[in-house]
Amino acid sequence: MISRNQRRRFHIINRSLQYRFLAIIIIYSLVIVLSLAMFLFIPDIIRLQNESLSFHDRAAAADNVLILHAKVWPAILLIVCLVALHSFRFFHRVFGPLYRFRWAFEQVRDGNLGFLVKIRKNDFLHQEEATLNEMLEMVAGKWKDVQKTSADALKSLNALERSGTDESDWKDAHKELLHDHRQHLEKLAETSQYFKVEKEEQEQKEEALDG
Known about the structure:
Elements: H1 4-10, H2 15-49, H3 55-109, H4 126-165, H5 172-192, H6 202-210
Helix pairs in contact: 2-3, 4-5
């Protein structure tokens, strides 16, 4: 299991996905660089295999091939390594926000709406961050209304029951309907309480910021 400090140091958030992207970048880089290298080698290789040329010309072509071997392959290896390292760090600016979004989805799944998502300044997906936060604020506000309405309905129902029991002519059928009404409202209140819309403790906020 990778700790939070290790994730910050090595930029590893989603191992399988990040390594998959890294492999794709390396493959593309190798294809491009090797294609360029082939264009450098091919003219001298053709001259080397042309028996109509003089021995001096073919020897010069062979020397050029050896020189290119000594210079091109180390350069290719260096370029591929630099591209891979840069890409790994660059994609972290995408995978970091995705990690925080996944954390937000898990919080909503667990019934918590009292938070906002915050990503780093240099990360990508800031528009998605703003849209997600707008959605969370809207849902939290609506759910607060549901909770308040449920509480008010139960309060008024309590008052109605108290007043009804004082009446001698209160019909049994009305009492049964009132009882059913109370059960529905209690179910609504119980369901709405699943979501927590109050702000969490400071530790929860720091976890949202750190990812």
